[in-house]
Amino acid sequence: GASVLVTAGPTCEPLDPVRVFTNRSTGTMGYAIAEAAAARGADVVLVSGPTTLDAPDGVDVVQVETAEEMNEAVQARRDDADLVFMAAAVADYAPAETSPTKHKKEEGDLVLHLRRTPDILKTVGANRRPDQVLVGFALETNDGPENARRKLEEKNLDWIVLNNPTEEGAGFGASTNRVTLLSREGTSEELPLMSKSDVAEALLDRVLHAHPPESSA
Ligand code: C5P
Known about the structure:
It is a single chain. The chain is an alpha/beta fold. It contains 6 helices and 14 strands. The protein has helices at 28-39, 67-77, 120-126, 144-154, 196-210, 213-216; strands at residues 3-8, 13-14, 20-21, 43-48, 59-63, 83-86, 93-95, 114-116, 133-139, 159-163, 176-177, 179-183, 188-190, 194-195. It has an 8-stranded mixed β-sheet with strand order 5-4-1-6-9-10-12-13, sandwiched between helices. A two-stranded antiparallel sheet has the order 2-3. Helix 1 crosses helix 5. The longest helix has 15 residues, at 196-210. It binds cytidine-5'-monophosphate (C5P).
């Protein structure tokens, strides 16, 4: 009966009608969390960037393209959520201007101006309900634990899930993942390599054990 809000997938930031800035996220981890939470009886809203995945059974999917659209969809729903899992790989930069017509190829290099996108999770963390549980993800290629803990604090999270995309069987596109789960209380647990569905179940187990539904609903 808990309300769960999940973000998943990449965002796509248009340069012109045919070209976008995006990343290698496939949405698999976020979809697995949404599916596992719905199977446990939660009311799940999944805000998803463009992916090729099917909507999980019983999950309300809100499709978005850009970081701005994802931000609007999440901020409009954040106050209803008891548990928030932000697994989306939101683009940090987007073209400062989107041309209504296709950029023409010209002699010489092209220099583009990129602008920062909104940090969706940071805004959720800054406006959180006191009884809400916030879980973020960190994808780091170096200094993982230090960077993850800094993000946990900066974004005011309860948990952060650290994964390293350069590791065998982990990160973008893989059906498996190997993550470290860090908590606000300072604990750190390395989970073994397992399917993303099993990672989702393990995350829900840990989060619900630390925040039983009576205290988070
Ligand atoms: O700062 P960084 O992108 O590494 O933080 C990752 C976490 O923040 C993820 O949970 C991601 O979904 C979220 N995020 C966000 N909006 C952004 C960037 C990241 O919600 N613009």
